[in-house]
Write a structure and sequence with these properties.
With 106 residues, this protein is mostly beta strands. 0% of the residues lie in helices and 62% in strands. The chain has a 5-stranded antiparallel sheet with strand order 2-1-9-8-6, with no helix packed on it.
Length: 106
């Protein structure tokens, strides 16, 4: 089974001219697969498990799940047609990646 995930990336300069760049793409991912480059040769996410209408995603220690101050677990479920946003912690600019589970293919 594969999950179709939409990834929206927003980069924001922290210095003038304070530009924003947006990029949207879709990826097909299977259980155990790493996906989405962190820009340093590694990957940000790993699809841990595919459920009935949701996926369990693990994210890199260099990111935090937006809206959660100090998560104790770096894994979370994303429901079908729902989104979760992740912000880079130590980058030179602001970087947010938003994952949306579009569909499951069997």
């Amino acid at each position: 089974m594969k999950a179709v995930i939409e990834i929206k990336e927003l980069k924001q300069d922290w210095n003038p001219p304070f530009q924003k760049e947006r990029e949207t793409k879709e990826v097909e991912v299977t259980e155990g697969e790493l996906f989405e480059s962190n820009g340093n040769g590694g990957k940000v996410f790993r699809l841990v498990k595919i459920g009935k209408d949701r996926i369990l995603v693990e994210y890199d220690v260099g990111y935090t799940n937006k809206g959660h101050a100090h998560p104790t677990n770096r894994q979370l479920w994303i429901e079908k047609h729902s989104s979760e946003s992740f912000s880079q912690l130590w980058g030179n600019d602001g970087l947010t990646k938003t994952l949306t589970l579009k569909e499951l293919r069997g």
